[in-house]
């Protein structure tokens, strides 16, 4: 299934807005609480997931957004703000379908593969790029 040009534009505009909001919030939290611990990212992830929970449940129960509005807000803004919110929505969908094993497998695989991917990227660069001191 191909996305419509309007939906793609909505995701792009929303993603830009969400990314800028994430950056500004992380900067503000860093100034407020310091940067030794990633409080900014923690707050972004927690607030983005809260917003995803609220908006996705409203969309299911009381709000009927158009596909373009859903693309703008849920995929674009919240996806740009934090992909962690998309991750939790995926888990929520699996739990809502009572696919608890799949939800747990997805959670564990996502965390493990993401961390492994990060360290594999570090290793790849360190093994290919000479260190200059």
Automatic annotation (TrEMBL):
Pfam family, one: CRCB
Alphabetized GO MF terms: fluoride channel activity; metal ion binding
Subcellular localization, as worded in the UniProt entry: Cell membrane
Keywords: Cell inner membrane, Cell membrane, Ion channel, Ion transport, Membrane, Metal-binding, Sodium, Transmembrane, Transmembrane helix, Transport
Regulation: Na(+) is not transported, but it plays an essential structural role and its presence is essential for fluoride channel function.
Any one annotated GO CC term: plasma membrane
Annotated InterPro entries: FluC
Membrane topology per record: Multi-pass membrane protein
GO BP: cellular detoxification of fluoride
Membrane-traversing stretches: 42-64, 71-94, 106-125
Binding site for Na(+): 79, 82
Key word Membrane present: yes
Catalytic activity: fluoride(in) = fluoride(out)
Biological role: Fluoride-specific ion channel. Important for reducing fluoride concentration in the cell, thus reducing its toxicity.
Membership in a protein family: Belongs to the fluoride channel Fluc/FEX (TC 1.A.43) family.
NCBIfam families membership: PRK14195.1 (NF010791)
Protein name: Fluoride-specific ion channel FluC
